């Protein structure tokens, strides 16, 4: 882990382990310029990501429950070993409401990690309830990084340490904070096929030039590009999502009726969030004994980056950098 420099020395990214107001263990990643991220060990879940102005970039509901076994409503829950609600496993799997550990034996670091604050977490099978639902031995390693320009990176690695193969689906269930859902458009998913969860996963083709929102949406876009843009016209802010190993992308907003039906979600909060989730759903991942899967996302922000609804490609490319 990175640490702060001595007094008088150049300030470096820092990592602190603390507790939140509810007594849950959290890891705080900080950058000298003022960027920060917070990761709960419960769920291995990023629950805060702030820019250098101290503005929160992720949505967490004001009614979120920070008490196990309830999953935390907002931030970036990890869906594993399933996305959706199938069989005996709880909806979106068990990773988001199990206690993760700081990884004592993290994987080797890339050469460009020195300018980043980062934490390595691990989830292992071992919980009796978890074993009853999904009786395979695995290691799920997660690295969360905060880059020098405030970019948030997440790298997931799932290794099969069992004697038999297993199959899973997964997603980074990312809740973005927006000014108003009516001011948001998403670019990069136009003309693609999608499965509509509101219509029994029937397959359709997206017709619009970009995605805008006037009602509930719950779609799984297939074979999506490596970059997706979430444009907030009111804030003149664009989230640029770059992903690898996660071919699908879920777009979700519960809208008014479902928002009111969720006890851990404010009645009007659907206006201030949009979920865009890198995922592997349509084609489940199968790992043979000893095999490992890796999936990554990196999110950065670009301000005043669009013109006539189009991203400024130079600013977007400058914002991307490489995966850390």
Q: What's the gist of this structure?
A:
It catalyses: alpha-D-glucose 6-phosphate = beta-D-glucose 6-phosphate. By secondary structure, this protein is mainly β. 6% of the residues lie in helices and 40% in strands.
Could you walk me through the main structural features you see in this protein, from its secondary elements to its overall organization?
The protein is mainly β. The protein has a domain at 14-179 and 249-296: Beta-galactosidase, Chain A, domain 5 (Distorted Sandwich), CATH 2.70.98.10. Helix content is 6%, strand content 40%. The protein contains three helices and 22 strands. Strands 5, 10, 11, 13, 14, 15, 18 and 19 form an eight-stranded antiparallel beta sheet that branches. An eight-stranded antiparallel beta sheet has the order 6-7-8-9-20-17-16-12. The radius of gyration is 19 Å and the shape is globular. The model is unreliable at 1-9 (pLDDT under 50). One of its GO terms (cellular component) is cytoplasm. Substrate binds at residues 73, 91, 96. InterPro entries: Aldose_1/G6P_1-epimerase, G6P_1-epimerase, Gal_mutarotase_sf_dom, GH-type_carb-bd. Belongs to the glucose-6-phosphate 1-epimerase family. It is an enzyme of class 5 (isomerase).
């Amino acid at each position: 882990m990175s640490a702060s420099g001595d007094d008088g020395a150049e300030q470096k990214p820092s990592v602190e382990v603390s507790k939140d107001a509810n007594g849950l263990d959290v890891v705080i990643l900080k950058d000298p310029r003022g960027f920060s991220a917070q990761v709960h060990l419960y769920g291995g879940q990023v629950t805060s990501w702030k820019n250098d102005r101290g503005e929160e970039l992720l949505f967490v509901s004001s009614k979120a429950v920070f008490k196990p076994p309830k999953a935390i409503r907002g931030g970036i829950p990890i869906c594993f070993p399933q996305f959706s609600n199938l069989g005996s496993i709880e909806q979106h799997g068990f990773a988001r409401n199990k206690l993760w550990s700081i990884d004592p034996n993290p994987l080797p670091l890339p050469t460009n990690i020195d300018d980043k604050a980062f934490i390595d977490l691990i989830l292992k099978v071992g919980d009796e309830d978890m074993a009853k639902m999904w009786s395979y031995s695995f290691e799920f390693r997660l690295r969360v990084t905060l880059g020098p320009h405030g970019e948030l990176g997440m790298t997931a690695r799932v290794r099969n340490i069992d004697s038999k193969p297993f199959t899973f689906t997964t997603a980074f269930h990312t809740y973005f904070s927006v000014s108003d859902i009516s001011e948001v458009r998403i670019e990069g998913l136009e003309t693609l096929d999608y499965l509509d969860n509101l219509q029994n996963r029937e397959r359709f083709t997206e017709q619009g030039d970009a995605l805008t929102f006037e009602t509930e949406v719950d779609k799984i876009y297939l074979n999506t590009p490596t970059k997706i843009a979430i444009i907030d016209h009111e804030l003149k802010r664009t989230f640029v999502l770059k992903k690898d190993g996660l071919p699908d992308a879920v777009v979700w907003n519960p809208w008014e009726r479902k928002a009111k039906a969720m006890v851990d979600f404010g009645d009007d909060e659907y206006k201030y969030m949009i979920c865009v989730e890198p995922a592997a759903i349509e084609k489940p991942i199968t790992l043979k004994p000893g095999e490992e899967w890796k999936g990554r996302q990196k999110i950065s922000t670009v301000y005043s980056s669009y013109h006539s609804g189009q991203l400024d490609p130079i600013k977007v490319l400058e914002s991307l950098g490489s995966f850390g």
